[in-house]
Amino acid sequence: MKTYPYYKLNAFTIGNSEGNPAAFLDLGTDPLSEDAMLAIAKEHSGFVSEVVYVNRDDTGSILLTYYSSECEVAFCGHGTIATMYEVIRRDDGLRNSPVIEIGTNRKGRLNIYNHINEEDCIYISAPDPLMIGCSLSRQSIAAALGIKDGAISDSLPLDIIDAGLRTLIVPIKNLADEISMYPHEEGLKQYCLKNSVDIVLVYSMETAGPGYFAHTRVFAPKFGYLEDPATGSGNSAFGCYLIKNRKWNGHSIKIEQGGGNRIFNEVRLRTKDGKVLFGGKASLRIEGTYYTGE
Which of 12, 31, 144, 173 measures 20 to 30 Å from 214, CA to CA? Predict the structure, then answer.
C-alpha cells in the first residue's frame, strides 16, 4: 500500500464564499494508472468536482492531470488554482518565483504567475483559445437551459470558444433571470454531448456587487455535476469572448460567479502579452494522507 499527501481546497473564494472544491494528491515521481486515477476520482463524486494529480520529475518540473468522477478532464482551471496556490504557498523556493512553468497532461505547458505575496492570489495563462463559433439556435439553447427564449439577449452574440474546455457562451438579458435558472441536468447533458460542448457559460453584464465587471454561471453536466460554482477555463473563454466583441480592453477585472442559492465567488481576469489570465486564491479545508493499493 502506498501513501500520498492529500489536500482538499476551495478555489476562487472571497470573504465567506464557498468557492469551488478540488482535491489533489501529490504523487511525487510515482505514476498512477488511468484506472487508478479514475477510481479515486469516482470516490470523490459529490465531494469535489475534480481531483488533480501532481507528478514531478527528477528536476522538480510539475505535471498536472485532471479527473472528474466521469472521465479525464482536458483542463481544470479551478483545480489548477487550488493545487498550485497550495503547492507554491508551501514551497519557499516557488513562493519567491514570479513565474512557474507547469505541464498539463492534455493541454501542454502553462505559466503560473505568482502574486501570493502582494495580492494573495495566483494567475494562470489559459491554453491558447480556439474560436469555434456557434450555429446553435437561441430557441434550442433556451429549451436546454429550461428558460424562455426571451431571456437570452439578442443584442449580444452566442459563441463557442475553447480556452481549455469547449465553452458555449450565452448572454442573458438580466441578472435576475441568470441567477434563478436551474436546468434539468440530464437534458442539458444530452444537449452538450449532441453538440460537442463541454460546458455552458451564461452571463449578465448586470452584477450584484460593486466593482464587478460581469456575472457568470457555468453548467457542466458532461462531467457528472450540474453547476461549477467558480470556473477558470470558462471565464477565460468569456474573457476571450469579451475581447473579440470589443467589450473589454484587457485591464484587470473581477467576475462574480454563482447562482442565487449561494454567496458569489470571485474570478479575476487580466491579460499579459496578448494572453488572457485567470486568477484567484484558495482556502485549505482538509490536509491528510491518501492510501492506495496501487
Answer: 144
Tell me, what's the pLDDT at 294? 66
Query: What is residue 52's DSSP assignment?
Result: E
Cα distance between residue 19 and residue 21, in whole Å: 6
Of 60, 44, 97, 104, whose CA–CA distance to 80 is shortest?
A: 104
Grid cell at residue 61: 518540473
Show Cβ contacts of residue 69 under 8 Å, excluding neighbours closer than 6 positions.
Answer: 41, 42, 44, 45, 223, 224
Can you list the positions of beta strands (E) in the chain?
A: 2-11, 20-28, 50-56, 62-67, 72-73, 99-104, 108-115, 121-125, 130-131, 159-162, 166-171, 199-204, 214-219, 227-228, 253-257, 265-272, 275-280, 282-292
CA–CA gap between residue 64 and residue 52 (Å, rounded): 6
- Band of residue 164 on the pLDDT scale cut at 50, 70, 90: confident
User: What pTM does this model have?
Assistant: 0.86
| 3-state DSSP assignment of residue 126 | coil
The DSSP bridge pattern shows strands 199-204 and 166-171 to be parallel
Residue 252 to residue 268: CA distance in whole angstroms: 7
Give dist(CA 123, CA 80) in Å, integer.
Answer: 10
Do residues 276 and 240 touch, judged by C-beta distance below 8 A? Answer: yes
Contact between 97 and 114 under an 8 Å Cβ cutoff? The reply is yes
pLDDT 10s digits, 281-291: 999 999 999 99
